[in-house]
Amino acid sequence: MFALSPESFVAAASVILLAVLGALFYAAFRRGWKRNGYFTIPAVILIVFGLYLAFQAFGSGITYAVVGTDIDAHPIAALTINGICEIGVMLVGTALVVRAQGQSFFSSFRLEGLRETPVSAYLLAIPIILMAQFAGEALSTLWERVWKFFPGIYAVLDKYETTSDKTVQGLVTAKGPIDFLLVLLFVAVVPALAEEALFRGFAQTNIERSGHWHARPFIALFVTSILFASIHVSVFKLPGLFTLALALGWMAYRTNNLFTGALGHAVNNGSIVIALYFSSGTAANDNSDLVGTGGLSGSEALGLFLGSAIALAILAYIFAGVTSKISARGNAEREVQFHIAGPPTTFRPELNEHSNTEA
Fold first, then answer.
1. 21-31 burial, b for 16+ CB within 10 Å, e for fewer?
2. Distance of alpha carbon 18 from alpha carbon 353, whole angstroms
3. Which residues, at least 6 apart from 252, have a Cβ–Cβ distance to it below 8 Å?
4. What is the rounded CA–CA span in Å between residue 85 and residue 222?
5. What is the pLDDT of residue 202?
6. Are 250 and 243 within 8 A, CB to CB?
7. Per the count of CB atoms within 10 A, which of 142, 165, 170, 192 is most buried?
8. pLDDT at residue 124 greater than cutoff 90
9. What is the value of pTM for the model shown?
10. Where do runs of H (alpha helix) occur along the chain?
11. Do 137 and 244 meet the contact criterion of CB atoms below 8 Å apart?
């Protein structure tokens, strides 16, 4: 085993990040930034990273200017600034990109299935996301145990994760009823709208509809989920975030309705806020809540994963059944064929007119 200093780890991570960004720019220039009127995978990743970095820069800069360095003393102010920047950059910024490229808001933000989505789909989104949360936490526990085989790297990651989680928990742990409502707004509601618009809306839609010959929903789901998990900059929570993103993206695909996943996203974040608020302050001294370790042993984590995965599979089967008749799900394939073969006289995606076949 070898020791690794924080400086060496940051340097290595920076080199890898620059290499990845360089490869993405090369792929975008070589293969094209757009296809079928939508951004290709390299372009989507670069745009998402750009918007997220802009959000972090604006949020950190304004917070420092207003609150200063002692963020823990003004958590609500910091959350408010963060929420406003999230709306301004990740939601409004994404909308400006969509408009600048002449894309339809209706299709880019996955609103085509809004009228067709049954109430039962919204209701099922809640237990689905909770089971995905349990499965993700179990995977994160097992994943963290793997890193312990590399003690030098683990020590650096553990220090970073612990510091980050304590900071986040300090911000999202409400001190009273009014604070609780504000924390719910800026931790559950605002991210559910802004992040879903960026990831399950813009990113997933553009990747899905920029295929060569056919729509590619499952490639879009996988890439967007990896991107969502990576953007949160947490190695230990990566499997959990990826699992949540898969559940959110799959529900958005099945319904072609952004608000289905947004509800699940809000429930996931809100459940963490509620748990911290009613924990009588004990969670503030234990970073395992956000990491997903929770003191579980390896066998307990494996059992939790298997149980929640089985429940998740059953719920997903039921969800697929209640959303089977949503014809807007086939709009992506129809639009790809529209660009390949030329516009059929009956196809107008903005009016959500469908053929008799379903993707």
1. eeebeebbeee
2. 44
3. 110, 196, 200, 201, 204, 258, 260, 261
4. 27
5. 95
6. no
7. 192
8. yes
9. 0.86
10. 6-31, 41-66, 75-85, 92-100, 105-108, 119-147, 151-172, 177-184, 190-196, 204-209, 217-231, 238-255, 258-277, 288-291, 298-322, 331-341
11. no
pLDDT tens digits for range 12-40: 666 776 777 677 766 766 777 888 889 99
- Overall residue count recorded for the chain in this entry: 359
Q: Is there a contact between 205 and 110 (Cβ–Cβ < 8 Å)? A: yes
β-strand partners of 34: 39
Distance of CA 339 to the CA centre of its chain: 29
Assign residue 7 a region: left if phi > 0, alpha if psi is -120 to 50, beta otherwise?
Answer: alpha
Q: What is the rounded end-to-end Cα distance, in angstroms, of the chain?
A: 51
Cβ atoms of 79 and 187 closer than 8 Å: yes
Pairing of strands 38-39, 34-35: antiparallel
DSSP letter assigned to residue 203: I
Say if CB 208 and CB 334 are below 8 A apart.
no
| Token pair for 169 | 């928990």
Q: Which two tokens stand for residue 10?
A: 């940051």
Q: Which tokens sit at 200? A: 């399950």
Alpha-carbon span 269 to 23, nearest angstrom: 34
Predicted pLDDT at 134: 93
Query: What's the whole-number average pLDDT of the chain?
Result: 85
Q: What are the DSSP calls for 11-77, one per residue?
A: HHHHHHHHHHHHHHHHHHHHH-SEETTEE-HHHHHHHHHHHHHHHHHHHHHHHHHHT-S-GGG-HHH
Q: What is the pLDDT of residue 286?
A: 40
For 248, the token pair is: 């959110």
Region 98-114: mean pLDDT is 92
Task: Count CA atoms closer than 13 A to 271's CA, side-chain side.
Answer: 15
- For the beta carbon of residue 243, count every other beta carbon within 10 angstroms: 26
Indicate the pLDDT class of residue 292, thresholds 50, 70 and 90: very low
Query: What's the rounded Cα separation, in Å, for the pair 149 and 336?
Result: 47
The contacts of residue 103 (CB under 8 Å, 6+ apart) are 37, 38
Whose tokens are 């995606």? That residue is 349
